[in-house]
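User: I'm writing a short report section on ligand binding and want a predicted complex to refer to. Could you take this sequence and flavin-adenine dinucleotide and write out the structure as tokens? A short remark afterwards would be nice.
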Amino acid sequence: MEIFIQPLQRTLTVAVGVNLLEALRANDVPVSYSCMSGRCGTCRCKVIGGQVVDSEDPYVLACQTFLTEACIVQIPEPDEVVVHTAKIIKTTLVAIDNQTHDIKSIRLKPAKPIEFSSGQYAQLQFTPAHIRPYSMAGLCTDEVLEFHVRLVPEGRVTGYIANTLKVGDTVRVSGPLGSSYLRRKHQGPMLCVAGGTGLAPILSIIRGVIAEGMKNDIHLYFGVRSERDIYGQEWLAELQRQHPQLHVHIVVTSGQAPGCRTGLVTDAIAKDWASLDGFRAYLCGAPPMVEATTLLVRQMGVLSEQIYADAFYASGT
Ligand SMILES: Cc1cc2nc3c(=O)[nH]c(=O)nc-3n(C[C@H](O)[C@H](O)[C@H](O)COP(=O)(O)OP(=O)(O)OC[C@H]3O[C@@H](n4cnc5c(N)ncnc54)[C@H](O)[C@@H]3O)c2cc1C
Ligand code: FES
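Assistant: Sure. The structure tokens for the complex follow:
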């Protein structure tokens, strides 16, 4: 049975029933993957032609897909492949600090290095009953991993972080996961939109731009509810010193704050730009903000496949 790979224009001959990710890897097709278990979305491909699964949706997770018929598979961005095999690493909590009235930063020292791309996240296991995904704020070359956690009222895991977690505790980090990582080959402008602790992966992305020596213009819109929810201004000022092409807009939903704009990030973006043609967009934080901004930037000219959205959905377990 044959599968045709776009945009590489290659034909692979594979056995009926083969796993798509295994077939791609066995034939040295550049494809990103991480968890190999359908959780992270990194291996998402589009299947054009041929019946692969029973669903109407052409997008599949290669690691979960078994091929039964000849088909055409479109792999995303073969020049931006990221392969960090997901691992479980033991870390020790070395610091827990208040950033705002309800945001804590936690710093974890890993027992061995963990590889990840800027913008990815990991599952943090504080105890077997307290596990949640959180996004890395730094780079994988840093000695400690930094995360920002907003305490959710009645939240099970954030309640544990606020009340029980202490310096010296062991935290298992499993990852990396996620496909909204920095695209290093892109040279055009970047739109970064962070809502609340969505700033963590966006900081990682901006730090990645600087570490890679990229020169892109970056327009960051950081949306918060009110003045007391703003954090990270010193980090942002330092990043602006290192990368003068970084433009920061802090947008406060209600009330006024010095040097900040008032309203929704979507309104601020729509006001500032007539078109976002040629931009890549990184959108991180609360799901309603990410969904509204995805719609807006698509209407303003960003290609769907160049919108990298990381919505902080509640886990529900
Ligand atoms: C890919 C990914 C990355 C994430 N990265 C981060 C991160 O870097 N920083 C961060 O703070 N969070 C992040 N989150 C969210 C985080 O994983 C938890 O969902 C959040 O911390 C709440 O956990 P909890 O156990 O305290 O709340 P739960 O006990 O699960 O929920 C309690 C109540 O709060 C609601 N709720 C849960 N989460 C939220 C929320 N975010 N906003 C509003 N209401 C909520 C629930 O619907 C429920 O009613 C991420 C989520 C995903 C999927
Ligand atoms: S590698 Fe396929 S979903 Fe994670």
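A remark for your report: DSSP finds six helices and 17 strands in the chain. The chain has three domains: 2-80, 87-177, 190-311.
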